[in-house]
C-alpha cells in the first residue's frame, strides 16, 4: 500500500478497531461484554476493572496515528512501511472480540498473539525511521501504549484460555506470568527508556495487585519487584542518553 490507498486503509483499520470494541463494550455482540467474559474466568492475574479504561486512551491514539498519516503532506513513501503492521494490529484487535465474546478463549489467544506480533513489528519499523518530535508523539506514543497493554493482555488471555480448559497452574502461575511480563518489559525499557511503555505496565501491575494482591504474598512481591524494575530500567536508559519518547534514538 502506498500513498492515498495506504492512508485510506490505515484510517479504515483504526475505525474498524474502535467500532468493533465500541459494539463489544455496549454488549451488542453476542449479548455480553468484554469485561463480563474476563470476570467469568478467575485467573489470579485478571486486573481490577478500572484498568481497562486504558483502552480509551489507546483508541484515541490509534485515531491520532491514522489521522496524522492521512494528511495530504504525508503521502510520501516514508510512511508506507508502517501501513501493513498497523492495519494488521487494528483489524485483528477488532476481530479478537468475536472469539472472545463467543466463549472461545483459545482462539482469542491465537488472535491476540497476532496482535502482539503486529505491534512489535510496527514498533521496530518506527524505530528504524528518523522520526521528528511530532512523529514520536503522533505515531510513537500511540504504538507504545498499544504494545505495552497488549503485552499484558496476551498473558491474561492465555491464562483465561488455560483456566477455561481446566488448567490453572495453581498458586505458582500468577507470579510466574507476572515475572515473565516484568522481565520482558524491563529488558525493553533498559534499551529504550520509553516512559509511555513503562507507565502502562505500571498501571497494569497496580491493577493486578488491586484485584489479586490480598493474601497472595508471592504475587505481591513479584508485582512490586516488576514495578521497581521498570523504574530502574527506564532511569538507566534515560541516564545513558535515551529519550523518554518512544523509538527515539
Automatic annotation (TrEMBL):
It comes from the Bacteria. The chain crosses the membrane at residues 7-30, 50-70, 82-100, 106-124, 145-165, 171-189, 196-212, 218-238. Gene3D superfamilies: TspO/MBR protein. Keywords: Membrane, Transmembrane, Transmembrane helix. This is Tryptophan-rich sensory protein. It comes from Rubrivirga litoralis.
Amino acid at each position: 500500500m502506498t500513498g492515498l490507498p495506504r492512508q485510506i486503509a490505515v484510517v479504515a483499520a483504526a475505525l474498524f478497531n474502535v467500532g468493533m470494541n465500541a459494539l463489544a463494550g455496549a454488549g451488542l455482540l453476542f449479548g455480553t461484554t468484554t469485561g463480563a467474559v474476563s470476570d467469568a474466568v478467575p485467573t489470579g492475574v485478571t486486573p481490577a476493572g478500572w484498568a481497562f479504561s486504558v483502552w480509551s486512551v489507546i483508541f484515541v491514539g490509534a485515531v491520532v496515528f491514522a489521522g496524522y498519516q492521512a494528511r495530504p503532506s504525508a503521502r510520501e513513501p516514508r510512511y508506507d512501511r508502517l501501513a501493513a503492521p498497523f492495519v494488521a494490529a487494528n483489524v485483528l484487535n477488532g476481530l479478537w472480540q468475536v472469539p472472545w465474546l463467543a466463549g472461545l478463549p483459545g482462539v482469542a489467544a491465537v488472535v491476540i498473539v497476532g496482535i502482539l506480533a503486529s505491534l512489535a513489528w510496527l514498533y521496530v519499523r518506527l524505530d528504524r525511521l528518523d522520526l521528528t518530535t511530532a512523529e514520536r508523539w503522533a505515531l510513537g506514543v500511540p504504538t507504545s501504549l498499544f504494545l505495552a497493554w497488549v503485552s499484558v493482555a496476551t498473558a491474561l488471555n492465555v491464562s483465561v484460555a488455560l483456566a477455561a480448559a481446566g488448567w490453572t497452574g495453581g498458586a505458582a502461575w500468577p507470579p510466574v506470568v507476572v515475572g515473565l511480563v516484568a522481565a520482558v518489559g524491563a529488558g525493553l525499557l533498559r534499551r529504550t527508556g520509553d516512559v509511555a511503555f513503562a507507565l502502562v505496565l505500571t498501571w497494569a501491575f497496580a491493577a493486578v495487585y488491586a484485584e489479586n494482591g490480598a493474601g497472595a504474598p508471592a504475587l505481591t512481591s513479584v508485582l512490586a519487584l516488576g514495578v521497581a524494575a521498570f523504574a530502574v530500567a527506564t532511569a538507566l536508559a534515560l541516564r545513558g542518553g535515551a529519550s523518554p519518547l518512544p523509538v527515539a534514538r
